Amino acid sequence: MCLLGIDLGGTTIKAGLVDIKGRLLVKGQVPTGAAEGAGAVLERIATLAGDLARGQGLAMQDIKGAGIGIPGSVEVEKGLVHLAPNLFWRDYPLRAELAARLNLPVAVDNDAHVAALGEMWQGAGQGFNSLLMVTIGTGIGSGLIIDGHIRRGVFGYGAEMGHVKMVREGPQCHCGGRGCLETLASATAMVRRFREYLAAGQSSRLQDGPDLGAREILTAAAAGDELATRVVDFAASYLGMALANAVLLVGPEAIIIGGGPAQAGEVILAPIRKYLAESLGAWQIKPLPVLAARLGNEAGIIGAARLALELLEHRESF
Ligand SMILES: [Zn+2]
Known about the structure:
Nucleotidyltransferase, domain 5, 39% helix, globular, 13 strands, alpha/beta, 23% strand, 5-stranded mixed sheet
């Protein structure tokens, strides 16, 4: 018996077969081709799943369920994608459509929630029952797990840390709000701030260019560049403060930082820990682990497979 985990992104569909112990048996990827419409995307998912199964000498009947993480807001109970701008989807009944296409039970959730589940099952979150995972990328995604289960609130978009408000009248966010965490601390925000400093005449060993990204800024900061360090420190200060607020609300056992910038390691993790501790102050009763995610871009596949497993277990209990 195995499970199909699908990580549906705006540009790439990643999928894999995972056994019930959480071991990734095989994985593959194809372009999403979102502009061709939802039907074409689902067709590519089904073809990829069939190819993966055949490669393992399995029939589709050997796959017992599928889970899928998508970049958008999901009404999980109905398997309905409310809004996924990267896929051009609005109010799309993904679970029903994909279940019909794969002939499998399907569980759907937001990709950041799914990644948190994957890290808890097989990654940096192993051994913890309650954790908060924050993924830093173009935006900031987050997933909250309490007592082993994803918590998403009544409307399915709870634990949306990227849009908690940090600065009144702060930078404009694409969500329509101002001063959201992701306008201050995402990879995009780091690059924007660095460019603003350069444009204002501040000097750095790192030069601007079309390929300038958070990775280059973090590398320069690790090498001691003062301006890059200041930019990383600014982002980390808001991440630390936002995490402290979340910790005071929900009290997780551990925090996991994912996304490209987290792979830079201590250059960003250390200041996040510093500002988290500073913001918690006397409320830091015992040390709270702040760990880098371990699964990289396999977290979405493994977490989605776990979502499928939970769906099957839930069904059996009725
Ligand atoms: Zn926002």
